[in-house]
Amino acid sequence: MKTVKIAMIGVGDISGIYLKNITETFSEIELIGVCDLIREKAERAKESFNVPKIYDTMHDAFADPMVDIVLNLTRPYEHFEVSKAALEAGKHVYSEKPLAATFEEGKILAEMAQERNLFLGGAPDTFLGAGIQTCRKLIDDGYLGDVVGAAAFMICHGHETWHPDPEFYYKHGGGPMLDMGPYYVTALINLLGGVKGVTGVTKTYFPQRTITSEPKRGTVINVDVPTYITGILDFDSGATATLFTTFDVHYKEQARFEVYGSKGTLIVPDPNHFGGPIKLFRPEDGEYKDMPLLFDYKENSRALGLADMAKALMSGRPARTSHKQTLHVLDVMTAFERSSKAKAYVALETSFTREAPMKNNPIHGQLDS
């Protein structure tokens, strides 16, 4: 079977699930090499997952004629330079979220990809999983009636108590919106459609953080980004959504994600995951009812979006995780701070039209053409 060849740049914390799923689940993609500034990480990946090559530098990977898609798993503030160099070398690019650390960088990458007729896109791909795809079908099939709005909340007190190296979450390219917001905004636009404008207020309530996890316990971090972001999304459809992300609040459990319609309310699962649970309330039922998952990929299926891009590349159809989506998400997320600074409603520069929903394939790990 013909496969699309992948080179992975960055072998950090998120790489493990990508390595597992690329090598064990998705049959249409093949990992042929890895690269990391810390060579030991690349060597461990090569040994654990039988990866054929270790590239000394990312430019060696970009120069490899066997590579079709560069998988950019570097840190958020590095996404732009890595993706830009890969595009300049004529490679398709799939990047971890966000597309770039600023909207301006994202626009440059999108323009480069379009000029070179290259695929550019990326995470999150959780919206392709069983949970959000089932929610989309319920909404599209009219179970909520006319959608009037939504509310989504990501509430926690940050990463410094458990992450081994949490500083970048509070630096350029980090913060709760660019870190976790992609999951929520991507889910929202795949359920409700494109956003035409936002109103936002952003704050930083704790200008310094002390790491309490090992190995950097006791290190003080200066916080350079907003860590309390609340906003209103104005959708093309006429629906309105509230989105709140924060690293400043103590909270015991996962906050809610709800979609409201003229006929009922849908409880959407955590968009950082691929599965459920999903609950639907309609007044005639008098209570929430558990909804069955109607699609495949309810387990941690990171690299599903990469496989979808590969299938799109082979078949000629659009990729569901293209830069049209990731740039629109970046436009939304960065617009909250622009709105807060201007103390005004901000119209978005980008627009978005949903791609086709997922189709169930009887063979797990093979996607539709």
Verbal overview:
The protein has 369 residues and is an alpha/beta fold. The chain has 2 domains: 119 residues, NAD(P)-binding Rossmann-like Domain (Rossmann fold); 164 residues, Dihydrodipicolinate Reductase, domain 2. The protein is built from 9 helices and 17 strands. The strands form 3 sheets. It has a 9-stranded mixed β-sheet with strand order 16-15-14-13-7-12-11-8-17. A 6-stranded parallel β-sheet has the order 3-2-1-4-5-6, sandwiched between helices. Strand 1, helix 1 and strand 2 form a beta-alpha-beta unit. The chain is globular, with a radius of gyration of 20 Å. It starts with a strand and ends in a 22-residue tail after the last strand.
Q: What's the total count of β strands? A: 17
How many separate domains? 2
Radius of gyration: 20 Å
Helix content: 25-40%
Question: What's a concise summary of this model?
Answer:
The protein is of the alpha/beta class and 369 residues long. The chain is 30% helix and 22% strand.
Chart the SSEs and their pairings:
Blueprint: E1 4-9, H1 15-24, E2 29-35, H2 39-49, E3 53-54, H3 58-63, E4 69-72, H4 79-88, E5 92-95, H5 103-116, E6 120-122, H6 130-140, E7 147-155, H7 175-192, E8 195-203, E9 208-210, E10 220-222, E11 228-235, E12 240-246, E13 257-261, E14 265-267, E15 279-281, E16 288-290, H8 304-315, H9 323-342, E17 346-347
Helix pairs in contact: 4-5, 5-9, 7-9
